[in-house]
């Protein structure tokens, strides 16, 4: 049966990197993968065309699709808008409407990119971390929220950090089962020394851990975790953490791998329906220049193949193709190295396509 992949390019470099990911999907289609691509609007592009960041047509499409591939949203143009209707709200709406509570952000270092990291080669060489970020709860979605005027006339902004027990349990299960398939070490990151919501997080994760005696569970405060990720990142196997801490730590972890342009992600619901996107944003500073790194998006396609289409064989081929172009010394600007060829976004996509075709 033909499976529908909803593709949402979005804003800034979104359309540029998605174009390269579509080239990859095209190759797979030509070699027999039975998929149909349907594009739709999200973010600023959707606001410009329809007035809202997540149009009903887009929501209807993603709900019936087998998987969603997203570029990025946001940009300076839409910053003056009220926060409730900004491009980012479209993305958050997708995550919550589809109940994509489990965000997997793998940060592994390709041997060829060891020198692209700003950290010393021996600190990052061989690094392979999985950040499991809770994605539909916490301070991102907690209520009450807003900006109000107090009785004395002073204004204040407020958000609510709240986690229900069931929300912590389900992300903990994902993290423990992920760890079981890896080195069986899980570090839960919180701020339990200050925030009750994360004191509770630690309690629930610890209890869930009793079901996984084969996984070694540790806990770490988020400030220390940020420092440890830069000091000695190889101490980590799987990290599980809240929505906001996961957002911040995954950007940090991306630089261990050489560039934020390298980090893919999968956002999954309870049935492994998923949305796949690079962890970076719309990069307004380089949009329209054909210099963005499309590899995070192409690696997100590999995750889509693995998790939503159950085609680990094809995911491996895409991963191998990315490895091959890096081995061939092909680099976009963000991972450039003296003596190696710096290529454009579209040339990088073409190189991956060529390496992929050779595997059939
Ligand atoms: P960003 O991730 O867009 O960019 C941060 C820096 O990394 C920039 O210097 C950018 O040029 C660089 N960069 C990012 N992706 C790159 C790539 N593929 N290749 C090369 N360089 C790359 O973060 P920001 O500048 O803080 O945010 C810009 C906009 O993106 C904002 O509107 C923000 O809300 C939005 N955003 C969206 C998402 C998403 O759609 N998932 C994620 C993060 C930020
Ligand atoms: C990400 C982004 C989003 C987030 C924004 C754009 C809503 O930074 O996917 O990491 O904070 O989750
Ligand atoms: Mn982010």
In total, the number of domains comes to 2
Regions with pLDDT < 50 over 5+ consecutive residues?
A: none
CATH classification, class level of the largest domain: Alpha Beta
Strand and helix order: EHEHHEHEHEEEHEHEHEHEEHHEEH
Question: What this model shows, in words?
Answer:
The chain is of the alpha/beta class. The protein folds into two domains: 1-101 and 269-360, Isopropylmalate Dehydrogenase (3-Layer(aba) Sandwich); 109-257, Isopropylmalate Dehydrogenase (3-Layer(aba) Sandwich). It has twelve helices and 14 strands. The protein has helices at residues 14-30, 43-50, 56-64, 87-97, 121-124, 165-180, 196-209, 222-231, 243-256, 295-307, 312-327, 345-357, and strands at residues 3-10, 35-39, 67-72, 102-108, 128-134, 146-149, 155-158, 185-190, 216-221, 238-241, 266-268, 274-276, 330-331, 341-342. The strands form three sheets. It has a ten-stranded mixed sheet, sandwiched between helices. Strands 6-7 form a two-stranded antiparallel sheet. Strand 11 (266-268) and strand 12 form a beta hairpin. Helix 8 (222-231) packs parallel to helix 9 and helix 10 (295-307) packs antiparallel against helix 11 (312-327). The radius of gyration is 20 Å and the shape is globular. The two termini are 22 Å apart. The model has no long low-confidence stretch (mean pLDDT 97). The structure holds nicotinamide-adenine-dinucleotide (NAD), 3-isopropylmalic acid and manganese (II) ion. Manganese (II) ion binds next to helix 9.
